[in-house]
Structure formats: structure tokens, C-alpha cells
Structure prediction request, 756 residues.
Amino acid sequence: MTLTAPDIEKPRTETAHRPRRGMGDTARAYLLNAPAMIVIGLLVAYPIGYSFWLSLHRYNLKLPALERFVWFQNYISLIGDPAFLSSLRVTVAFVVVVLVLTVVLGTALALVLNETFLGRGVLRSLVLLPWAMPGVVNGLMWRTIFDAKTGALNGLLLQLGLIDSYQAWLTSPTGAFFITAFAQVWNTLPFTVIILLAGLSTIPSEQYDAAKVDRAGVVQRFTQVTLPWLLHPLLIVLILETMNAFRAFDTIYVLTGGGPGDATNVIAVLNVRTVLTYTDFGLGSAYSWVITIVTLVISIGYISTLYQRGRIEV
Amino acid sequence: MNPSFSRRRVLQLGALTASLPAIGSVLAACGGGGGNSSGAVKFSGWDYESALVQGNVDRFVQLNPDVPVEYTPITSAQYVQKTVAEFTAGGGPDALYVYDDSLAGWVAAEYLQPLDGLPGVDEVYAGIYPSNAEAMTVDGKRYGLPYYTDSQCLIYNEAILAKAGISAPPTTLDELEQQSQRIKDAGILEFPIGLTAQLQDTWWAWVWGLVFASGGDMFDAAGNAVMDGADPTARDVFAWLHRAATVSRVIDPAVLQLLPVPLDDAMKNERYAFTVGARYALRDYNDPSRSKTAGNLKIAYIPSLDGNVVGTVSNTRMYALSKDSEVQDKAFRLLTYLGGFTDGQPYTAKYWFQKKGLGFPFRALEQDPEVQTTLATFADPTIYSGLASLARPRTAIKQAWYSEYENEQQKTVQQLLSNQTSPDDAVKALSATVTSLKQKYS
Prediction:
């Protein structure tokens, strides 16, 4: 049976006219949502709030006698903290490289996969595979591939005659940095492709037809038709991938442990090491909140920029 | 459907609300906050030969049926982090392994209890090497019974040296570089020296071994940094490392990725002529069933800057007792079995030596005929004992900030090996790290 609009509206009208019996809709909604809110409060809000509370303390397990509330001293100390500043520099560079690679490669792949060709379904499935891989496994896989002694890449390049002997790819600072960035991109690229593919599928084909009638070339069609339609999904990609890259830990930890030296010592690696190896929960929590705040600021920046251009509804 | 509330629904929600404290208890238990209701001794350690550990624990339980033991091996790369997390959550083990470099921090964090006054502890400390006793003592209190100890040494492949026309191992670092160059020039190996230099705690004792072998130190007795001023040894050793890795290139650049097991495999497959490592590795390296070059891998003193044999570094791993253990007596009986004497014999220490060649902290075992016989199958007993008598623990190990310093030192040495810093800058950076850590911990 097909419902007509009045059929759908009818119960709502009845409800509106029903005499109130003690509890209003708002109160009922709160009551119904209360269990979920309590669970969220217990599992999400409490740890987050507690970590902020910890970040306002001098709280190192090795110094129990010196534990005390220090207001924002942990945050202020970061200004002159060479370890933090060094890791921040590495993290910013890492985020930029990962974002550029992700957006460029993701857009290119999405455009290819949006075309109709034989085997598109298989290729789409294959592209999704890396996303299913946990970060630790991803790190282990790339470490095996880039291993200086037994790595598959060395074997391949040697067979092809492109190198004379096995190379220690992960032992130069530049090599290690770009390989970790590449491993991160490989892991998260499928998500970008999915989002952009969804965006591409919403573009009306008439727009391309009109552009062709106007004799727009491939580049013009991309910049004048495709890109404006993709701004919204690109915003989502930028926000989520910025967060992912800022928090990147497992792949890097497994691949290089933050080395050589400080070359890949991103803030998340420093954070985990500070909390779990050095047991400095106060400073470590401050690191976590800096990651959160920086990510938040960048996300607001993305949204407000696009909002000002009238491309997004808030 | 009528969206209004039924009485049954309100009762269901009421019951859910009332059950929240119970849910909270379940969550707390999941977090490890529960007590030890089974009465078993919770015993955890890193996962080195966990099957052998389990076998030995089973033997203890057979001898002591009133002391059930729940043994949990934890992957060594995560051992410190996981144990800290367990103690923080309130559900730590009763008895556990402790690294000597973690001890001071864990004592300060109040995870462990001193063993002074407990039965048999004095006898154990009287029977072990002073360096091991020192490593297990913090602020005059004894916190551990020894699991094993070992000293760093030079391990070389005699057959590879012979192929290059070298008749004796090097005694100076320059000789080590020259011999390596000779092996390299002869086309035998591209990189004759292998080390473990991936960022990871506990496997970097070789840096200390090189400095101690040359008679120097990173710190003075008061724990002040001397590496950039009063004592030039560390800088000179760093200069050698830098040169050997980046100029003569006799140290394999891949060492920055190398973990202990792959290094062992490389040594057993003649991929390196030299390494600096623990003495007990020789047992495995010279086992014909596991090594392609068994019998060719020899032990030597670590080469020094001037050729004089001065020292080396020792590691001490120990068994300790949790401060909040609810089964303290039982846990201590397990500790005594593992790290003390059973019927007048250090049973477990000898067990480990016989099974895996692990260094023993008990002086009496040096005279044990069975030990001597086994030792002779894989190492020169004279050099083996000589290293033990020269060995000493890392100087700043008793500082609560030691683990942070060690991590910085490892990063700095990685920077040297990958040509990201100079020896002068390296010692300056380490000295600055010490100053900053002292401030942070004051």
C-alpha cells in the first residue's frame, strides 16, 4: 500500500491534539535517551574529562610525592620543550605530506573508478582492501617490504637491475619519513576514495553535457564542474584525514619507532612514550589535548573557509 | 504504535538505572581493579622462553602444592608499558620480572616492596657478584632476587677473520675498524660489524659497554653528566662510531632497523664478522643444530680506545615482589625458588645456564663442574669470568629519570649512525638532556 502525505501526517496531528498526561515530549525524549547518554558519559565523556583534569596536574607515577594541581603549567612548559617542538615540526610536515598525497591520489583514483570499464567492480573492491588492515599490521607489512636484509622491494629492484645491493631504506631520515607517510596514505586512501566516489556520483551528467556543448576541455570540465561539486566531500576528507594524520601512531611505531633519531617522532609517538614508558600522565595528557585542540582549530578553519565561499551549509 | 510509556517500560528503565552501580563494578573489574580472589600468585615476565619458564613454574607448584601460580608472559617490547598500565589500574602481578633500568622508577612509583628482612635474602645477596647486588638495591633497600646477569663482550667470527688473514681479534677500536676494512676489501662482507640499534629499550647496553671498556663514563658518581666536559671518553667513542658508520662504512647501515633475533640469525649465518652483545648469545651461536658457523664464534673483551682492558657493562634482571600483593608469603616463596637457593643450590639460575647459557649471578656456580663443562662448549671460560669481574652496571640507572635518558641516548646514537649529528653535538645534546631531566624531576 502506498501512503499518501496526509496518511503520514495523521498520527502526528493526533499526537499534537492528545491531552498531556504529566510528561511532555522533551522530557520523554530525555528519559528515553538517558541510558545511552549515561553509557556515553561513562565510556567517552568521563575519560576525556579526566584526561583534561590530569593535564592540569603534575602527575608522574615516579614522583608520587610531588603530585599536585599546577593549572596550565604543563601547557606552558611545552613552549620551551625541545622534544615537543621537534615532534610538532615532524608532525606538521607529516600531516602536510599525507594530506597532499591523500587528496591528489584519492581524487585521481576516484575519477578513474568513476568511469565505466571492464573490471571496475573488482578494482573498486581491491582499492578498499588497505582500509581493512589494522595500523599495526600495515606497519609490519611495510617494514617487511622495506627491510634492509630481506625486503621484497630490495629483491625486486635487484632483480630488475635498478640497484647493485640491498638498500637500508628506513635508516635515512628522509627515506624513513617519506616511507612512513606513504604507509599512512596507503592505509587511509580507500576511505578518501569512497567519499570522493560518492561525491562524484551526485554530479548530474547534464552538467558535463552542457560543458561539452560549450567546448570545455577535460581540465576545464574538472575545474568548472567536478571540483565545485567535490568541495563538500573534500572538506570531509580534509577534516578526517587531518585528524587521522595528527593522531597517526601504530603504523609509525611499528615501522620506525620514531627513528632514526627524531626523524619520524610524531607527537602521537611522543605522547604514548611519555605516558606509558615515562609514566608522566600529566604532561602526556597535555600532549593529547594539544593534538585535539590543533585538530579542532584546523577543522574550524576548513569549515569557515568553505562557509565563507558559500559552499557549505552550517 | 502508541509512543506513550507503559508501566512495564518504566519499570524496565528503573531496573536499568538501578543496575548502573553493578555495571560500574563490572567495568572496574575489566580495568583490572579486582582483587586476587583465587589465592593464586599472579606472576608475570617478558616472553623470553616462556615454555621453559612455565615448566620451571610447574615444578615449583609440584613441590609447593599449596601455592598455585598463574604465569603470564608478556611480549618483551611491551613489557614495561603493560606492567605500568596494570599497576596503574590497580591489578598488577604479585611477583614479576624487573629490568635493572626500570627498578628505580618502579620503586619511586611505589609498585614494589623491599625484601630486606625476609628469610634467605641476606644469603642470596652474600652469594652474588657485588655489581648484581648493587643493581638490585635502591636507597639502601634490596628489591630483587636475581634472575640472570650478563656482561657485554665482543663476539667475532674466527673463520671470517682467518679468511681475511687476521690471526687475533682486535684490542682497540681502531684495530676493529682496520680489521673490518680488511674483511670488506677482501670482498668477504660488505659490512663486517652488526649491532642492534633499533629504538627499543633494553638492547642498547653495547653503547655503555664501549664507553666502559675505554675506562670512561657518561656520569660521575653523583649522577652528574660528564660526557661533554670532564670525561672525553664518550665523545671519542661516539667519534669512532660516527666514522665507522659514515666514513669507513664498516658498520652496517641496516643496524638501525635490526632487532636482537635478526642479529642473532645474521651472526649464525656468517653475515657479520663482529658484534658487541651479551655473553650468553655464544651458547646459541655455537650450537651446531642452530648455527651454520658453530664453533667459529668466539668471545673477546670489548676493544677500547687505547687497547687496555678496563671494563664492560653488566645487565641484571631480577624477580621482585609487588607492594600491594595480597598473597605476599606465597609470592615470596615463588621468588625464593626462582631467584634464591633451593636445598642450598641456586637451582633456577643453574637451570637457565644449562638450558640457554644465561649468565648466572651466583659466584658459587663458577666452580660447579657441570657449569664449567657446559661453558667450555661455547666460550672461553677465562675471558667469560674476566668479563664478569670487570663488569659494572650503568651509572645513572638509579635515577628515576633514567629510562627517559636512555631513550634520548638511543636516539642520539641513531643520529650519529645515520649522520644526522656530530660527536660534539651528540654529547652536548645528552648533557642538556640530563640538565633538563634533573629539573623536571626536582
